[in-house]
User: What shape does this take?
Amino acid sequence: MDFINKTILLTGASSGIGKALAEKLSREKCKLILCSRRVDILENFKNTNQTIAEIFPFKCDVSNKEEVKNTYEKIKNEIGMLDIAILNAGVGHRMKVENFDSKLAEETFGVNIFGLIYWIENIIPDFIKNRSGIIAGVSSLADNRGYSGSGFYCASKSAATIFLEGLRVELKPYGVKVITIKPGFVKTPMTDKNEFKMPFLMSPEKAADIILSGLRKEKRIIQFPLPTVISSRLIGCLPSFLYEFMMTLYDKKK
Ligand SMILES: NC(=O)c1ccc[n+]([C@@H]2O[C@H](COP(=O)([O-])OP(=O)(O)OC[C@H]3O[C@@H](n4cnc5c(N)ncnc54)[C@H](OP(=O)(O)O)[C@@H]3O)[C@@H](O)[C@H]2O)c1
Assistant: This one.
């Protein structure tokens, strides 16, 4: 697959991985629809860069069902049918159990899970009718266990991975591809808040290159970097008692 003449939706395009993806995709001859709440950043990107792609900025809060529906309708009316949807918008909060706050869970699930579901709810009928289309959802390699301090985030990404996996099977007969993107640590405003050392931290530009290469190859799962993929698999296989013991030691060391 290439991106030439494709209509591509990218959510979470104002920062981090999404911003790097937007910069790289803007060098392709495509129609690039950029979404986020901070639409001024997207408009500034359009106005200050000479791009090969046609850029269409949209303001949309992915956790707002009506807003997603209206944005999708606008996109269809003003630009046309999508070929590829890269659903990248996400939030991540660290929370100490002493400050337990369900508001953070509502936001995390609102964006990381319902943000995916609302977009997919709108996109699926058209993709099924056209018997084509690619949905690429950004999950995380942190989908494998409950890491302390990041419970809501891990749970939301675990839900995202499982949801996308089921969807991949269900949409295959309709010629619609579902791709799961699982990055390890990438240096972005989201991870800049982390107080711990992040192994194999990579730049958003490198992450974007890997993601776009995986999309071109239409890989089912795009996961990187390899050392984090291997270690997350190993951690995932540990019996719970051993995992909890190791996590407790690690937390004490921090
Ligand atoms: N960085 C990592 O190490 C890492 C690792 C694994 C997975 N990921 C995943 O990669 C994706 C991108 O993360 P990032 O690190 O690039 O984070 P980031 O720099 O904080 O960017 C997050 C993006 O999501 C958008 N967003 C957040 N809430 C939104 C909402 N309610 N509605 C619409 N857009 C919203 C933000 O735009 P506005 O604020 O302008 O709306 C921003 O463009 C996320 O799904 C994240 O979970 C990141």
